[in-house]
Amino acid sequence: MLTDIQRLQMLQVPTEAIDVVIDSDTYNEIDDQFAIAYAHLNPEKLRVQAVYAAPFLNHRSTSPANGMENSFQEIQRLMHLLGASTPSFRGSPDYLPDENTPIASPAAEDLARRAMAYTPEKPLYVVALGAITNVASALLLNPAIADRVVIVFLGGHALDWPDTAEFNMKQDVAAARVVFASGAPLVMLPCLGVVNVFSTSGPELDYWLRGKNPLCDFLVQNTVDEVNSYAAGRVWSRVLWDVTAVAWLVNDDERFMRSRLIPTPVPEYDNHYGSAPANPLCRYVFHINRDALLGDLFARLAAK
């Protein structure tokens, strides 16, 4: 079990180069692609060790398993555009049936094994950008990894938001409860009420990214095509949610966001947070510096 000092140290923004794995429902919409690219384009700080495909179910999939497979294939396309050889793994075909039963998958098994090579002093950072099923399964498969990882989760809404019925959280509340109760150091990036300020628009994408390189052209067109499916001919903006979770790892001197320590809340099945003042501390992001982060993202993408 971690000491209080170890937990507080692990919840600081890392100051040295770190190893990272990314768990992503990459095909779910358009922001995961930006986030995975941004992680790979910070090589001086982030060493991306693996990318895991997470399950999802929405208009871009026919089942959680289909969403996971679509995400796995999207990861392959993105690796090609990045010129990267990062290993990728298929994740869970479904959500957890309960809080005690893991779903074995190549992703969960890799994380359960891989994290054992790390320590509280040099942890593995797990950036979770979708339903957190794979990460919860890894913790259930091997609870010992809780002291060897830092989990950065983009999910739920702000503490003062009326509910937590956000896409990542509500798909697998059981998994979120497993992760939040595991004792693993946790960084929370809430969606509505915090991260939703991190939006961009068509004119910005055209000005800063279009024509810069094949990766930029893919990201721009992927975004525009998605938006045109529901907002063609209208004013629009689009939140690049998942980029913020990666950005926390490179948030030196709070240049991209501000956060505070709070007792880890409890995700409830009625889509609210339960209060648990005696729970271990986690880090809660409450402010995003939109312009600073978007500027860094665009600069790194354009320079690819």
Describe the fold and architecture.
The protein has 304 residues and is α/β, with parallel strands linked by helices. It has a single domain, classed as Ribonucleoside hydrolase-like (Inosine-uridine Nucleoside N-ribohydrolase, Chain A, Alpha-Beta Complex), CATH 3.90.245.10. The protein contains 11 helices and 12 strands. The strands form 3 sheets. Strands 3-2-1-4-5-6-12-9 form an 8-stranded mixed beta sheet. A two-stranded antiparallel sheet has the order 7-8. A two-stranded antiparallel ribbon has the order 10-11. Helix 5 (133-141) links the parallel strand 4 (124-128) and strand 5. The radius of gyration is 18 Å and the shape is globular. The protein starts with a helix and ends with a helix.
CATH superfamily: Ribonucleoside hydrolase-like
Number of helices: 11
Percent strand equals 15-25%
The residue-averaged pLDDT reads 98
Terminal Cα separation, in Å? 42 Å
